[in-house]
Amino acid sequence: VVQWTGTDVVPPSISINDAKAATKVFGKPTLLWDNYPVNDYAESKGRLLLAPYDRREAGLSKQLAGILSNPMNQEAASRVAISGVAAFAWNDQDYDASRTWTFAARQLAGNNPKTTQALLLFFDTQHLAPTFGTHPWQVQAPALKLILDKFRDALSYGNKDDRAQAIKSLLNHAQEFRNAPNIIRSGTI
Which of helix, strand or coil describes residue 66? Predict the structure, then answer.
């Protein structure tokens, strides 16, 4: 069996055509060694990569001998992406990255809803996938970005009520973020 990392050491995406090309080169389906969510190289050093497993094309598993994940050294944090790898490998046609991401938080939280929400808030701030170069292939902190974009738009273009609501929303998010570490620590990870 030939292990293949995709089109790069840490590829931003892997398509069916990529796998077909690898099969053509090696003469048989390859075993995908997906360097996801590995964080032992310069661009990710010191970061937890907590984005969901994403940008792997549905149907890919039919072109491969199997899929392996190269996790981070941080075992519990690696479960976030590894849950996605397992779900994708099991049923890539119906794989839902966001749903699996929430499932991973719920599992780490021992099904505690408050801890699950605190983890998702933290995951958002670490919404990063292995990236070489200057252009990440996962959107960084998408939930926080949405709040900040609305805040900036309300301040620039909104009326007094819009600005007040945007400030309230940002303050609420900041308070939730402030409380998240204690909630996570008291949860069951």
Answer: strand
User: Which two tokens mark 66?
Assistant: 């199997």
Sorted by sequence, the CB contacts under 8 Å of residue 99 that are 6+ apart come out as: none
Runs of H (alpha helix) within the chain = 16-26, 75-90, 97-108, 113-125, 142-157, 160-186
- Asked if 80 and 50 touch (Cβ cutoff 8 Å), the reply is yes
Q: What is the pLDDT of residue 45?
A: 78
Q: What are phi and psi of 21, to 5 degrees?
A: -65, -40
Q: Give pLDDT, residue 80.
A: 94
Strands 66-69 and 31-34: parallel
pLDDT along the chain (189 residues), means of 10: 91 94 95 91 83 94 94 93 95 96 95 96 87 73 93 94 94 95 83
Sheet architecture: strand order including 3-4: 3-4, 31-34, 66-69
CA-CA distance, 32 to 46, in Å (whole number)?
26
Residue 143 CB neighbours (<10 A): 15
Give the Cα separation of 3 and 175 in Å (integer): 46
Neighbours of 34 (CB within 10 A): 23
**Cα–Cα distance for residue pair 131/141, rounded to 1 Å:** 15
